[in-house]
Design a protein that fits this description.
alpha/beta; 11 strands; globular
Length: 251
């Protein structure tokens, strides 16, 4: 069985990279592969944002996988979703909140069986959600917010690949994201630390909140790595049981 797992950036993937013997693909930047108990696992780093996710999928998915897990960190939008919790979404909405794509039901159920917390919806937006006010506004329509899940799932579902959206919460509802990280992104959707440090120099009072966010994010990525490893193992031998029908994108 061949499984594709996507992350936005390398630091979301690093705990799992250290846990398993993933090898970098020199032909395709941002791709890694490993054999886990006989399962071919390929990891794709898409870069942050919808456009980067679509470009990465189009440029590197030359062999259609049996299933796809779109993964990484997310901002919590409900008070019950705490830092480090792994969520699996029944559906992922685009930024308008009107168009959505479903997670494959069997993949969803398997994720819950492995310990993921079921969530009704994720919403994928075009900019990093920083303030509690923005999160509260989005909380009426989703459990968590990210920037890539919808694009990845829409594209892979179009190819007939069953998908699941699985995210670990980095910043909960009441936590503000310090600094404007959108300004720190390069054209490939990677965070330029020099740009972040420039903002720190201009506003050093936000350094402590940034450190708190970094600690929570580190714990969330470690939690996600443990979950993904167990989840992938749980899917061994499930190829014949999975319904490979395309999940329809609804308007």
């Amino acid at each position: 069985m061949k499984i594709l797992v996507t992350f936005a950036v390398d630091w979301e993937f690093k705990p799992w990279l250290r846990q398993r013997a993933f090898q970098s693909d020199r032909r395709n930047a941002g791709t890694f592969s490993a054999q886990i108990e006989g399962i071919d696992v390929r990891v794709l780093l898409t870069g942050i944002g919808t456009g980067n996710a679509l470009r990465s999928i189009s440029a590197t998915v030359d062999e259609i996988p049996d299933l796809c897990i779109t993964s990484g960190l997310a901002g919590g939008l409900k008070p019950q979703h705490r830092s480090g919790e792994v969520l699996v979404a029944r559906a992922v909405y685009d930024s308008t909140g009107e168009t959505f794509v479903y997670s494959d039901e069997r993949l969803f159920s398997s994720a819950v069986d492995c310990g993921a917390k079921p969530a009704s919806r994720f919403i994928s937006v075009s900019q990093i959600v920083r303030t509690v006010q923005e999160k509260t506004r989005l909380s009426a329509s989703a459990d968590a917010v990210d920037m890539e899940s919808f694009a990845v799932m829409k594209e892979l579902s179009r190819l007939g690949v069953p998908c699941a959206a699985i995210r670990s919460v980095s910043d909960p509802l009441e936590m503000r994201v310090p600094y404007d990280l959108d300004r720190a992104l390069d054209s490939a959707g990677r965070i330029r630390m020099r740009q972040v440090l420039g903002q720190v120099v201009c506003n050093p009072r936000q350094l402590l909140p940034l450190a708190r966010l970094a600690i929570r994010s580190s714990r969330a990525t470690a939690s996600l790595a443990r979950f993904l490893d167990n989840y992938v193992l749980s899917l061994a031998g499930f190829k014949e049981k999975l319904d490979l029908n395309v999940q329809h994108i609804s308007q």
